[in-house]
């Protein structure tokens, strides 16, 4: 399965809207969270409606001082949003006094662009690939030093869309913990192959665009020189190749969209519905 490396999803203290996340909340969630007991699903901006799309599951939670760090198992919906620069932060859904236990529990995680808690990780797609079997990554944090595999960032880590595959999502060979959700969450081999093809086409497109820009820039510097027929022909040829690759990417995107819809699961009611207050951070 695909999973992220740990990232900071919540920090104890006052939120930007004046509420308070206590250290006890952080410690309780780290102590109590067990996906086998109650699996916290990932959603889009706390949308629990019946037509909303689930984005994956939370695998584990741990306290690191005043911070709550999570590991997640995303699906293709979440990865596509991150690729387009959307839903880059997290907002934890915590139920205090969960099942009258006296302790807080993580019942869900929302991906959002407007987190209430400070210090949350911002997701980006990275190009650093540790393992050729690794397909998709959920990038680095604002403080890249938090991640042992991305602490030495180079300019190549923020290159083109065609180089987005990388290191923070690892392919685990452990037995599936959630066999009932395997078909909903994990990408099929067909989806993986399409993603690989899409990335290869993106890389080719960006290379060709770079060549077009280079030729046009060279021509602009020679304004007093009569047009070079050979250069014009080469630019026209490159533009044709770019258009062809862009068309292929569009077709792949349509296929991926159809396949990604197969990851939906039956919608369940939020934990504690009708009971005590559930707090979103």
Describe the structure in your own words:
- By secondary structure, the protein is of the alpha+beta class.
- It folds into 2 domains: 2-175 and 265-280; 187-263.
- It is built from 5 helices and 11 strands; from the N terminus they run ββββαβββαβββαααβ.
- β3 and β4 form a beta hairpin.
- It is elongated.
- The relative contact order is 0.17.
Please state the structural category: alpha+beta
The total of helices stands at 5
- The percent range for helix content is 25-40%
Major beta sheet, strand line-up: 2-7-6-5-9-8-11
Give the low-confidence spans: 123-180, 271-275
Looking at the structure, what is the overall shape? elongated
Q: Could you state the order of secondary-structure elements as H and E? A: EEEEHEEEHEEEHHHE
Please state roughly what percent of the residues sit in beta strands, choosing from under 5%, 5-15%, 15-25%, 25-35%, 35-45% or over 45%: 15-25%
Q: Give the integer mean of the pLDDT values.
A: 67
The multimeric state of the shown protein is single chain
N-end to C-end Cα span: 28 Å
Radius of gyration: 22 Å
How many domains, as an integer? 2
The strand count comes to: 11
What profile does the largest beta sheet have? 7 strands, mixed
Organism: Vibrio chagasii
Protein name: Phage capsid protein
């Amino acid at each position: 399965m695909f999973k992220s490396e740990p990232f900071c999803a919540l920090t104890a203290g006052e939120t930007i809207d004046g509420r308070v996340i206590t250290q006890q909340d952080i410690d309780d969630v780290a102590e109590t969270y067990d996906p086998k007991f109650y699996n916290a699903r990932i959603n889009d901006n706390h949308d629990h409606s019946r037509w909303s799309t689930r984005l994956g599951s939370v695998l584990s939670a741990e306290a690191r001082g005043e911070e709550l760090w999570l590991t997640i198992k995303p699906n293709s919906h979440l990865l596509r949003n991150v690729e387009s620069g959307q839903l880059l932060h997290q907002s934890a859904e915590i139920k205090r006094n969960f099942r009258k236990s006296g302790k807080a529990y993580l019942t869900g995680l929302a991906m959002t662009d407007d987190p209430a808690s400070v210090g949350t990780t911002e997701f980006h797609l990275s190009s650093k690939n540790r393992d050729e079997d690794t397909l998709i990554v959920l990038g680095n944090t604002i403080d890249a030093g938090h991640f042992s595999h991305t602490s030495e960032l180079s300019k190549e880590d923020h290159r083109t869309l065609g180089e987005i595959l990388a290191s923070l999502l690892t392919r685990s060979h452990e037995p599936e913990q959630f066999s009932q959700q395997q078909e909903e969450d994990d990408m099929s081999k067909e989806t993986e192959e399409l993603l690989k093809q899409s990335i290869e086409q993106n890389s080719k497109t960006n290379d060709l665009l770079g060549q077009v820009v280079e030729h046009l820039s060279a021509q602009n510097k020679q304004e007093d020189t009569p047009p070079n027929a050979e250069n014009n022909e080469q630019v026209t040829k490159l533009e044709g190749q770019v258009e062809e690759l862009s068309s292929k990417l569009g077709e792949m995107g349509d296929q991926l969209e159809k396949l990604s819809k197969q990851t939906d699961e039956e919608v369940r009611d939020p934990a504690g519905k009708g009971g005590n207050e559930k707090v979103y951070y």
